[in-house]
Write a structure and sequence with these properties.
By secondary structure, this protein is an alpha/beta fold. It has one domain: Rossmann fold, CATH 3.40.50. It is built from 7 helices and 7 strands. The chain has a 7-stranded mixed β-sheet, with helices on both faces. Helix 3 links the parallel strand 2 and strand 3. Helix 2 packs across helix 3 and helix 6 crosses helix 7. The longest helix has 18 residues. About 50% of the residues are buried.
Length: about 220
């Protein structure tokens, strides 16, 4: 069995996102704007894609986003800690500027998806991507072919997972990080995974029940993980 459609959703914005502070495995909650984003995303994704299963990282910012989506779909949320963001180790709580002062050129490497180690005690991008891709594949492979599986997680690892699920031997930075509560749509086949849409985002009209989504290519100010 393999699900017919996979929706990868980044969590809503947090106070740490807003100031470009590295979160990693820190359990930071959504802020009020993040909850509004999640509600708008939930309405748009439910109308357009009608998820039948939802799985989430166990970190609060992803889990709450998933629960808001689940409320719109009438579903429960399965939690999988393998979907956590990259472990940034001792960078946790520092801003992008703080780390940039310590590690010159780090910001460019972050944007490019370079496979550096995120501090001496953290993961590399590839280490984190391997566990996230394995988690996604496990949940998708167990689902019936007509299922729509929504996976709610984190910016860097979901971007990286899309690149690897497509089978691309390319720098992870070939794609931008999705905006907060942005989503991608993929369709697995027996031979490969197809990318149908990337970095979709609910429009302002969604708040009043209008148009559901648009392609949103963002140089996102909330890229710190």
């Amino acid at each position: 069995m393999t699900a017919g459609t996979v929706v990868l959703v980044r969590h809503g914005v947090t106070d740490w996102n807003a100031v470009r502070r590295f979160q990693g495995h820190a359990d930071i909650p959504l802020n009020d704007l993040g909850r509004e984003q999640a509600a708008a995303m939930a309405g748009a994704v439910t109308r357009a894609l009608a998820p039948t299963r939802i799985v989430s990282s166990d970190l609060a910012r992803a889990r709450e986003t998933a629960e808001i989506l689940a409320g719109a779909c009438g579903l429960n949320v399965a939690v999988d800690a393998r979907l956590r963001e990259i472990d940034v180790g001792e960078w946790e709580g520092l801003t992008l500027a703080d780390v940039g002062d310590q590690v010159p050129g780090m910001a460019d490497g972050l944007d490019a998806g370079d496979d550096f180690r995120w501090s001496a005690t953290g993961e590399t991008a590839n280490e984190a991507t391997v566990r996230v891709v394995a988690a996604i594949r496990d949940h998708v492979d167990r689902a019936p072919t007509d299922d729509v599986v929504a996976v709610v997680g984190h910016g860097a690892v979901l971007r990286n997972a899309v690149v690897r699920l497509l089978g691309l031997d390319a720098p992870l930075g070939i794609l931008s990080v999705m905006t907060n509560c942005g989503w991608a749509v993929m369709r697995p086949t027996s031979a490969y995974w197809r990318l149908v849409a990337y970095n979709c985002a609910a429009t302002a009209a969604t708040f009043s029940g209008g148009a559901s989504s648009k392609f949103h290519d963002s140089t996102n100010p909330s890229t710190a993980v």
